[in-house]
């Protein structure tokens, strides 16, 4: 057994169990062995096989990301930055994302790029919501991350024939088969020799899943003691589709199905019944989320691109809703998501006091861990997993560092992330990913994007070249 000690760290973001909160510990030591933290405090006097000089460093818990799409989103850089369907309330979901597809050759490099970006931004645990692909478990294990494997399945696909009406092609048998495959993948993940893979049940979207698929998947998740997540209240189109079908909001439809609760996560939950844009008559959704203990996965960046925002993080928290954070889109930078979550909440509330950096850090650590059913990650305390991040306090963008977490979130971000350990294994050193060749994967991804751009007109209802709806910033000369 090798005992590693980080000695004399300027700051440790330690867990105060009595107060149930993170605290700054100045001049602290952290010791870990066999993937488990053994000591957090001052003046560690036990055995040390490896000593890491903590001077000029902040040690903090690894961040917990509860919603991401690594197998597809890195490809969208340069396509979706400014793109939304004007006749579909500025969403990109229905007209453009289905036609800008990564081919099978590109998917593994999408994953490598996303996983690398996540590690570099301090993420140690990730919920990966992807359609199952052949190399998934090996890529997840090789990355060094702790990955919650979350295979998505659904009963229908959405599409548009004209850019202003969304239609659904239903195949409920295929949805059932995909759900069975998802449970098989989860079982394989949980048996994986890495010991870092676990599972979550993910019917993909509320409007693409039949009532039976939603209820059956939730019941099976409860039977297996697994978290359950669904995209819901994520667009104006979806809100109107669910109210047209069922006469109630998406959140109230999930309540009728009996699937809200403390093991359930709603991906996004922006378009509640009191959201001004939807103009609905009831005002129950926010209280329903709080009363049932249902979690929300908040991913601000992807919506900010479309002129859409949660209204607002602080209001949800004050109502009693438990919120975790995710990186739904590129870049997969958790620290930027934290910054955006804070800024957009204050903008929507027109109040800088609507939430604090304490709230954001909790959402990215302990709240995310709880959403995934884990009490052994997201905090630095003896007995928890040795998932931790060392931040370079001497980095110019961390200066001054009166409050180092604020300096990290609002200024330095991933530039100051120096080392990352997952399960006690060093996976980032000197700001470089050790487990994957990030630069090479990024170069291959560029070639894959060219293939996607060439193929997109064949899938488009109007057979347009991509430059018709996503022109370059400047024309080629």
Summarize the structure.
By secondary structure, the chain is of the alpha/beta class. The chain has helices at about 105-120, 135-145, 170-190, 210-225, 235-245, 250-255, 285-290, 300-305, 315-320, 335-350, 355-365, 365-370, 405-410, 440-460, 465-470, and strands at about 5-15, 20-35, 35-40, 50-55, 55-60, 65-70, 125-130, 145-155, 155-160, 165-170, 195-200, 200-205, 230, 265-270, 295-300, 320-325, 390, 415-420, 425-430, 430-435.
Secondary-structure topology with pairs:
Blueprint: E1 4-16, E2 21-33, E3 36-41, E4 50-53, E5 57-61, E6 63-68, H1 107-120, E7 123-130, H2 136-143, E8 146-153, E9 156-160, E10 166-170, H3 172-190, E11 197-199, E12 202-203, H4 211-224, E13 228-232, H5 236-246, H6 250-257, E14 264-268, H7 285-292, E15 295-298, H8 300-304, H9 313-319, E16 322-325, H10 334-349, H11 357-363, H12 366-371, E17 388-392, H13 404-412, E18 417-422, E19 425-429, E20 432-433, H14 438-459, H15 466-469
Helix pairs in contact: 1-2, 1-14
What are the salient characteristics of this protein?
TIM Barrel; Urease, subunit C, domain 1; about 475 residues; 9-stranded mixed sheet; about 35% helix; alpha/beta; 15 helices; 20 strands; 5-stranded parallel sheet; single chain; globular
Plain-language structure description:
It is a single chain. With 477 residues, the protein is an alpha/beta fold. The chain has two domains: 4-61 and 381-433, Roll (Urease, subunit C, domain 1); 63-371, Metal-dependent hydrolases (TIM Barrel), CATH 3.20.20. Helix content is 33%, strand content 24%. It contains 15 helices and 20 strands. The protein has helices at residues 107-120, 136-143, 172-190, 211-224, 236-246, 250-257, 285-292, 300-304, 313-319, 334-349, 357-363, 366-371, 404-412, 438-459, 466-469, and strands at 4-16, 21-33, 36-41, 50-53, 57-61, 63-68, 123-130, 146-153, 156-160, 166-170, 197-199, 202-203, 228-232, 264-268, 295-298, 322-325, 388-392, 417-422, 425-429, 432-433. Strands 1, 2, 3, 4, 5, 17, 18, 19 and 20 form a nine-stranded mixed β-sheet that branches. Strands 6, 7, 8, 11 and 12 form a five-stranded parallel β-sheet that branches. The radius of gyration is 22 Å and the shape is globular. It starts with a strand and ends in an 8-residue tail after the last helix. The model has no long low-confidence stretch (mean pLDDT 97).
């Amino acid at each position: 057994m090798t005992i590693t000690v980080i000695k004399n760290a300027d700051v440790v973001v330690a867990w105060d169990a009595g107060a149930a909160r993170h605290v700054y510990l100045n001049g602290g030591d952290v010791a870990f062995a066999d993937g488990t933290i053994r000591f957090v405090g001052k003046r560690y006097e036990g055995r040390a096989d490896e000593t890491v000089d903590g001077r000029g460093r902040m040690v903090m818990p690894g961040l917990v990301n509860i919603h991401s799409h690594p197998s597809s989103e890195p490809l969208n850089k340069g396509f979706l930055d400014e793109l939304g369907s004007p006749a579909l309330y500025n969403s990109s979901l229905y007209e453009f994302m289905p036609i800008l597809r990564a081919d099978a050759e590109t998917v593994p490099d999408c994953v490598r790029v996303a996983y690398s970006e996540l590690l570099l931004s301090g993420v140690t645990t990730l919920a990966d919501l992807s359609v199952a692909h052949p190399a998934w478990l090996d890529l997840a294990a090789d990355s060094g991350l702790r990955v919650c494997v979350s295979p998505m399945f659904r009963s229908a696909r959405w599409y548009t024939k004209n850019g202003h009406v969304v239609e659904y092609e239903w195949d409920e048998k295929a949805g059932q088969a995909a759900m069975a495959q998802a449970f098989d993948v989860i079982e394989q993940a949980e048996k994986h020799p890495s010991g870092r893979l676990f599972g979550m049940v993910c019917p993909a979207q509320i409007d693409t899943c039949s009532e039976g698929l939603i209820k059956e998947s939730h019941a099976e998740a409860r039977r297996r003691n697994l978290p359950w997540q669904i995209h819901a209240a994520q667009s104006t189109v979806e809100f109107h589709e669910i109210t047209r079908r069922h006469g109630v909001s998406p959140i109230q439809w999930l309540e009728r199905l009996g699937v809200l609760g403390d093991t359930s996560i709603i991906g996004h939950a922006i378009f509640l019944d009191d959201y001004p844009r939807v103009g609905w008559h009831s005002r129950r959704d926010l209280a329903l989320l709080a009363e049932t203990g249902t979690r929300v996965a908040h991913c601000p960046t992807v919506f900010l691109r479309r002129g859409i925002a949660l209204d607002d993080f602080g209001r949800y928290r004050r109502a009693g809703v438990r919120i975790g954070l995710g990186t739904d889109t590129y870049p997969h930078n958790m620290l930027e998501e934290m910054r955006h979550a804070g800024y957009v909440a204050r903008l929507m509330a027109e109040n800088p006091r609507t939430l604090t950096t304490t709230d954001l850090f909790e959402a990215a650590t302990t709240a995310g861990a709880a959403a995934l059913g884990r009490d052994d990650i997201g905090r630095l305390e003896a007995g928890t997993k040795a998932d931790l991040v060392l931040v370079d306090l001497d980095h110019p963008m961390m200066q001054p560092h009166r409050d180092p977490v604020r300096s990290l979130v609002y200024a330095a971000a991933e530039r100051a992330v120096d080392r990352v350990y997952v399960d006690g294994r060093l996976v980032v050193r000197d700001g470089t990913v050790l487990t994957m060749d990030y630069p090479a994967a990024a170069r291959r991804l560029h070639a894959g994007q060219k293939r996607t751009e060439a193929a997109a007109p064949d899938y488009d209802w109007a057979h347009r070249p991509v430059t018709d709806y996503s022109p370059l910033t400047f024309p080629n000369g």
